Amino acid sequence: MTLANISIIITSYREQKTIKRAIACIAEHRIRDSEIIVVAPDKETLSEAEKLTTLYKNLIILKDRGEGKSSALNFAVSRSKGKILILTDGDVFVGKNSLKFLLENFKDNKIGAVSGNPVSLNKIDNKYGFWAYVLTNIANLRRKRAVAIKKRFFCSGYLFAIRRELFPLLPENLLSEDGYISHIVYQKGAKICYDERAKVYVTYPDNIKDWINQKRRSAGGYNQNYKILGVKIRSFSSESSGAFDFFRYVTNVRETAWLIGLFLTRLYLWFLIYRDINIRKKGRKDLWLRVESTK
Fold it and tell me: What HEC string does the chain produce?
């Protein structure tokens, strides 16, 4: 596959503080014959992004209807030209050569999508930074294991690439687009691979309110996908398997206490998710709460 006809789509909402850096990190890759599409509903983000259109001639700015990420992705994909779509967000930063690493995998015609590797930017000298460090490393470990034993796994919504013909029309009430898209890729008979080298740098929540809101939305989205697709993608039991792996990242008593706190908080989180989806029947508009500390 030649590195041509690539569409890099950045979905964003009220991320005027980070969008210019997000664009610059992508533009620095200098992917030949590519377009960079920023899609956002708010004028603040769009205004900051537009300041870079004279510097990057392949930068396209789109205003969406403000009806959620699924709607924004459907709109951006419909306006894109690429045979390969690379999807990322306006509040994360793509690492050096990460796009090149993603694209290399499409030389194998059986590969339908490639997941990148989220890396935490948070300092690990506090509880929430330590949680982010542990969870991102566990996710990396589990994806590598899944590849090794040819087990299904799912792309990270922070950074992944997909063949255009496999991208589905997304239901607009989705909480977890990455899980839904990944399932459709498998359903269409294609493979998903993981490239650990394709790093994307993410700031995670630094307080309990934001942490619960973010995880409630993302993990709850997998439960929602189960109701839509009839396939259980993620659950408390699957997350709890291999619990001893978590302890490889503990180096002292304080971190042990933080890790125990993480287990207890995840248990409470899954209780909330069950209540939200099955008892209170909450949807995207109820569960999509903005997480300010990651911006």
Answer: CCCCCEEEEEECCCCCCCHHHHHHHHHCCCCCCEEEEEEECCHHHHHHHHCCCCCCCCEEEEECCCCCHHHHHHHHHHHCCCCEEEEEECCCEECCCHHHHHHHHHHCCCEEEEEEEEEECCCCCCHHHHHHHHHHHHHHHHHHHHHHCCCCCCCCCCEEEEEHHHCCCCCCCCCCHHHHHHHHHHHCCCEEEEEEEEEEEECCCCCHHHHHHHHHHHHHHHHHHHHHHCCCCCCHHHHHCCHHHHHHHCCCHHHHHHHHHHHHHHHHHHHHHHHHHHHCCCCHHHHCCCCHHHC
- pLDDT of 1: 45
Dig out the tokens for 232 from the structure: 């259980």
From the number of C-beta atoms within 10 Å of its C-beta (0-12, 13-18, 19+), residue 230 rates as exposed
Q: Whole-prediction pTM value?
A: 0.89
- Assess whether pLDDT exceeds 60 at residue 70: yes
The one-character DSSP state at 195 is E
Q: Would you give the distance in Å from CA 109 to the centre of its chain?
A: 24
Tens of pLDDT, residue by residue over 248-263, are: 999 999 999 999 999 9
- What digits encode the pLDDT tens for the residues 129-177? 999 999 999 999 999 999 999 999 999 999 999 999 999 999 877 778 8
* One-letter amino acid for residue 1 of the chain: M
